[in-house]
Write a structure and sequence with these properties.
By secondary structure, this protein is an alpha+beta fold. The protein is about 40% helix and about 35% strand. Strands 1-2-3-4 form a four-stranded antiparallel sheet, covered by helices on one side. The longest helix has 25 residues. The chain is elongated. The model has no long low-confidence stretch (mean pLDDT about 90).
Length: about 60
């Protein structure tokens, strides 16, 4: 397994055979080909997480 990015928006991205794998500290894993799809998936995940976090903060409701 070869490391491509050590820290791309909190994910370590490695190339394993014919796929790319992205793993973060919470053990969320994306495995796809090509690399652009992995990066798009990470961007979408992070953007949605940030949006949900800001939405929860604005509502004043506790997070479950």
């Amino acid at each position: 397994m070869r490391t491509i990015y050590e820290n791309y928006r909190g994910f370590k991205i490695c190339k394993q055979e014919s796929t790319y794998q992205a793993i973060n500290t919470d053990r969320i894993v994306f495995t796809q080909w090509p690399l652009s799809e992995v990066l798009d998936s990470i961007d979408t995940y992070v953007d949605l997480s940030e949006f949900q976090s800001s939405k929860d903060t604005q509502s004043g409701l506790p997070q479950n």
